[in-house]
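In the current project phase, our protein records have gained a structure token line. A sample record follows, to show the layout:
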Amino acid sequence: MPGRYTITAESKNISERFSVEVPDTYQKRYNAAPTQSLPVISTSQLKRLSYYYWGLIPQWSKNKALATKLFNARADSLKDKISFKNSLKSRRCIIPVDGYYEWKSVSKKSKIPYRIVLQSGELFSLAGLWESYEDDTGNEVFTFTIITTEANSEVAKIHDRMPIILNQETESMWLDLKEEEDEILKLLKPYPSHLMSSYAVSSKVNEVANDSPELIEPAPPADQFGNYSLFD
């Protein structure tokens, strides 16, 4: 996946870390989810935080329902699928985050939510692609998807896939449209395990409507009945 993430830093910290202007409308997000309008930095506006809808809608499609199916893109499919091929060449973006959520299956009916972060606690970014299209009212709508790859050994304890995580050096390469495609594709690999950590959080994160600071607080892993899990 991921299917949810967090961006809880102050505007000033985001501006300093990514060298961008942050609009006054910026709000911290503790449970960012697909179809929502969320902050990105794209090749169309490198110096300002923009707001795009999470769920890529190709230019040739105006079916918004399709967006929920394209909120993630597999790294190994980018050169083959028409949905992503053109975006890879000229419409790349990064998504500022400070963590993301993943769910660990502990039985057929029970999953435990975890928040995955950098051990340093620093802001980082996820590699993405963006698209735009004109809606029925003539307004230009911007959408994005997050690129995923196989999980590293830390994340694999929870899930078999993870987003492409970038650092400041690789962010610059990803956003530079002059970079050769072969060099860009080399960036699409699992982030080093020893730089990451994870912890269980409240099942309240399961509800998209919940978006408050308590969601990122550590919570004892519990199964669907509220009992502590022996599988952690």
Summary: The helical segments are 11-18, 82-90, 168-175, 181-185. Residues 72 and 146 are 5 Å apart (CA to CA).
